[in-house]
Amino acid sequence: MRRLTLALAALLAAGTTAAWGEDMPLSYEKPQIPADHSALLASDDPQVAANKRLVYDMYRIVLQAGRADRAGEFIATNYVQHNPNAAQGLAGIVDYVRKTRPERPIQDTLDLPLIHLMGEGNFVTTAFVRPEKDAEGKTYYSTWFDLFRIENGKIAEHWDPMLKSEAPIDPNDKKI
Fold first, then answer.
1. 175 vs 169 pLDDT, higher one
2. Is 43 helix (H, G, I), strand (E, B) or coil?
3. 3-state SS assignment for residue 155
4. Which residue has the higher pLDDT, 66 or 26?
């Protein structure tokens, strides 16, 4: 039995090395982006559906359209921000939006390449395709995630993968 376990472990390790070895080419294919956002907003739980709609509309109106003046409709005054490039509270997100993007017309749906919107309890996570350029100037696709905590019908806390060393971004510049 021990030999079989060791043999299986060796096969798995060899397969893992081959699958993730340096010879594996990077994928430059554009991921599938759902056209129907209403399906992403749906949930059997009415509170989860409301939380997903809150985050979606905040993205659409505040972050996509640059309407910092409307941030208070979606974001709590004592908003906790985990992006190291934005200040705390509602005032911090208002300032960040004003500094990073112009005002644009408000669209009925997100133009940003949303691939998934997940909600569970008081949390909503967005996942967006993020086109980037490699060292040769070739486009590749990464993913941007945001996690929001909802409290009393407003966004109370936010996490994303932004590093302090990165310049603040306008996600609208990352469309496909």
1. 169
2. coil
3. strand
4. 66
Give tens-digit pLDDT for 83-114.
Answer: 888 899 999 999 999 999 999 999 999 988 89
Alpha-carbon distance of 72 to 42, in angstroms, equals 24
| CA dihedral of residues 168, 163, 87, 175 (deg, nearest 10) | 40
**Residue 33 CB coordination number (10 Å):** 13
Cβ neighbours, 10 Å, residue 135: 5
CB 132 within 8 A of CB 142: yes
CA 38 to chain centre: 17
At which residue do the structure tokens 């997903």 appear?
A: 52
In which order are the strands placed within the sheet that holds 154-159?
75-81, 154-159, 139-151, 123-133, 114-120
At 171 the pLDDT is: 58
Structure tokens at 24: 């594996």
Taking every pair of Cα atoms in the chain, the longest distance, rounded to a whole number of angstroms, is: 67
Distance, in Å, from the CA atom of 44 to the CA atom of 140, rounded to the nearest integer, reads 35
Q: Which domains does the chain have, with CATH numbers?
A: 31-162 (3.10.450.50)
Given a cut of 70, is residue 72 above it in pLDDT?
Answer: yes
Return all residues near 31 (Cβ < 8 A) that are at least 6 apart: 115, 129, 141
